[in-house]
């Protein structure tokens, strides 16, 4: 029975899983979107959402707490820069997981995890209307 076992162990021991999620979280903060398997993306979402919530409080204490999770100085400084201001105003739900298909090597379900406010397609104010053009039907003479 799996009662009260809420985290996915990802087939790794605790130290390996902790460093894997830390590295993936810092990559997500730096690059704004990464491709990974669906199970890792879901585990990463549970790992990074509280970190972004902690970054709303701009103090030295919160920076040190976040550094204890990420272990990457550039990712922590990027998280507290002005470009993350949009993310901090959001009440929650900072990430989006999009399933992209299956990996060629082992057919694992592959997905894209991204920070919601950095996607230009969904957040742009200008939405282009596609113009529908149809061909004129040419009547054939009999």
From TrEMBL:
<keyword id="KW-0687">Ribonucleoprotein</keyword>
<keyword id="KW-0689">Ribosomal protein</keyword>
<dbReference type="GO" id="GO:0005840">
    <property type="term" value="C:ribosome"/>
</dbReference>
<comment type="subunit">
    <text>Part of the 50S ribosomal subunit. Contacts protein L32.</text>
</comment>
<dbReference type="InterPro" id="IPR047859">
    <property type="entry name" value="Ribosomal_bL17_CS"/>
</dbReference>
<comment type="similarity">
    <text>Belongs to the bacterial ribosomal protein bL17 family.</text>
</comment>
<dbReference type="Pfam" id="PF01196">
    <property type="entry name" value="Ribosomal_L17"/>
</dbReference>
<protein>
    <recommendedName>
        <fullName>Large ribosomal subunit protein bL17</fullName>
    </recommendedName>
</protein>
<dbReference type="InterPro" id="IPR000456">
    <property type="entry name" value="Ribosomal_bL17"/>
</dbReference>
<dbReference type="InterPro" id="IPR036373">
    <property type="entry name" value="Ribosomal_bL17_sf"/>
</dbReference>
């Amino acid at each position: 029975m799996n009662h009260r076992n809420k985290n996915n162990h990802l087939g790794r021991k605790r130290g390996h899983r902790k460093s894997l999620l830390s590295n993936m979280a810092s990559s997500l903060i730096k690059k704004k979107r990464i491709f990974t398997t669906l199970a890792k993306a879901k585990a990463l979402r549970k790992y990074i959402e509280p970190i972004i919530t902690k970054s709303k409080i701009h103090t030295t204490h919160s920076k040190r707490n976040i550094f204890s999770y990420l272990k990457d100085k550039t990712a922590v400084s990027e998280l507290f820069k002005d470009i993350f201001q949009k993310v901090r105003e959001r009440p929650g739900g900072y990430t989006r997981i999009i399933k992209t298909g299956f990996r060629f090597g082992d057919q694992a379900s592959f997905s894209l995890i991204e920070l919601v406010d950095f996607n230009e397609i969904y957040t742009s104010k200008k939405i282009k209307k596609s113009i529908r053009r149809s061909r004129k039907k040419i009547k054939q003479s009999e």
